[in-house]
Amino acid sequence: MENTDMNQTGDMAAVLFCFPHLQGSCPRTLRLYVTRVAMYAFMLTTILMTVCGNLLVIIAISHFKQLHSPTNFILRSLTVVDCCLGCFVMPFSMVRSVEGCWYLGKHFCKVHSSLDMMFCTTSILHLCLVSIDRYWAICHPLQYRTAVPIIKVIMCIGIIWLFAFVFGFGVVFSEVNAVGLEALILMSSCVGSCALFFNKEWSIIASLVAFFIPGAVMTFLYVKIFYVAQKHAKVISDRMATVSFHELKNQASEQRERKAAKTLAIVMGVFLFCWLPYFITTIIDPFINFMTPVGIFDALVWFAYFNSTCNPIIYAFFYPHFQNAFKIIIGKIFSLKITSVILLSL
């Protein structure tokens, strides 16, 4: 990323501004045309994959009654969050990342930052809720139906949405995150900027609430689930050596247990890969006097967004009942398109 600065002689001819006719405008980020096209192509592809993938899961769970379960209700709410992130946050972040300018005004900047924090927090808390649900289903299968009824799941989902809304909009609009940074913000502000600064206290608080606490819960539960799944697979394998009558059935059960363990390992790997670098940087940045380059932060934000792209692939595409639902939905879409083309040609 090449930022263009004014030379020391005061020559401003080489500098492009976000709002050339306004005094105090931010300078635009100058890039090669090929670089800008590549960035837009990558980000647009990510946005389309995020929206379409999550929308497909929403339709599948809503349309097919056999998918109506506590786990899938959580997944549907998670995909609604990720779809909203792809529709209402990522497109504006894309323009800001590529152009280096915010064209939609100060008030919408706050709304955008609030929605960004709200949807990301909601997504992470949903992932935590999925881990709790899977823990009860795999580690305590006999108590699962009584311990995790649908009404309790719906209440938990509502609490997550409400908490994330209050947290995201409350922090941004109250500006508690910027207490003590007024001089720095005033010095770095210009027309066309949209940056969210966190002081030392709130960089730690926000990271703990939005990532590290739910992440620690997820890690603990998935380690426990992984251990139980491996234990079940070993028991099944031992039984296969002595009981030949149920050999095929036991083999299928063993494969399911191993697949569940592998899926959980992928879940945690992708989650940590996408989110951990961003939150570590968020905590460290105030302590190093905000020396992290804007380009690095943008890259880390898009890594975090990418988790919302991966969620429907990990949680839905790995399971056969979802794959069958997707085939039916996509088949109907293509048949409708073919029918409409035929009718238009007549």
From TrEMBL:
<dbReference type="InterPro" id="IPR009132">
    <property type="entry name" value="TAAR_fam"/>
</dbReference>
<feature type="transmembrane region" description="Helical">
    <location>
        <begin position="296"/>
        <end position="318"/>
    </location>
</feature>
<keyword id="KW-1003">Cell membrane</keyword>
<dbReference type="GO" id="GO:0001594">
    <property type="term" value="F:trace-amine receptor activity"/>
</dbReference>
<keyword id="KW-0675">Receptor</keyword>
<keyword id="KW-1015">Disulfide bond</keyword>
<dbReference type="InterPro" id="IPR050569">
    <property type="entry name" value="TAAR"/>
</dbReference>
<dbReference type="GO" id="GO:0005886">
    <property type="term" value="C:plasma membrane"/>
</dbReference>
<dbReference type="InterPro" id="IPR017452">
    <property type="entry name" value="GPCR_Rhodpsn_7TM"/>
</dbReference>
<comment type="similarity">
    <text>Belongs to the G-protein coupled receptor 1 family.</text>
</comment>
<feature type="transmembrane region" description="Helical">
    <location>
        <begin position="264"/>
        <end position="284"/>
    </location>
</feature>
<keyword id="KW-1133">Transmembrane helix</keyword>
<keyword id="KW-0325">Glycoprotein</keyword>
<protein>
    <submittedName>
        <fullName>Trace amine-associated receptor 4-like</fullName>
    </submittedName>
</protein>
<dbReference type="InterPro" id="IPR000276">
    <property type="entry name" value="GPCR_Rhodpsn"/>
</dbReference>
<dbReference type="Pfam" id="PF00001">
    <property type="entry name" value="7tm_1"/>
</dbReference>
<keyword id="KW-0297">G-protein coupled receptor</keyword>
<keyword id="KW-0807">Transducer</keyword>
<keyword id="KW-0812">Transmembrane</keyword>
<keyword id="KW-0472">Membrane</keyword>
<feature type="transmembrane region" description="Helical">
    <location>
        <begin position="115"/>
        <end position="138"/>
    </location>
</feature>
<feature type="transmembrane region" description="Helical">
    <location>
        <begin position="37"/>
        <end position="61"/>
    </location>
</feature>
<feature type="transmembrane region" description="Helical">
    <location>
        <begin position="204"/>
        <end position="229"/>
    </location>
</feature>
<feature type="transmembrane region" description="Helical">
    <location>
        <begin position="73"/>
        <end position="95"/>
    </location>
</feature>
<feature type="domain" description="G-protein coupled receptors family 1 profile">
    <location>
        <begin position="53"/>
        <end position="315"/>
    </location>
</feature>
<feature type="transmembrane region" description="Helical">
    <location>
        <begin position="150"/>
        <end position="172"/>
    </location>
</feature>
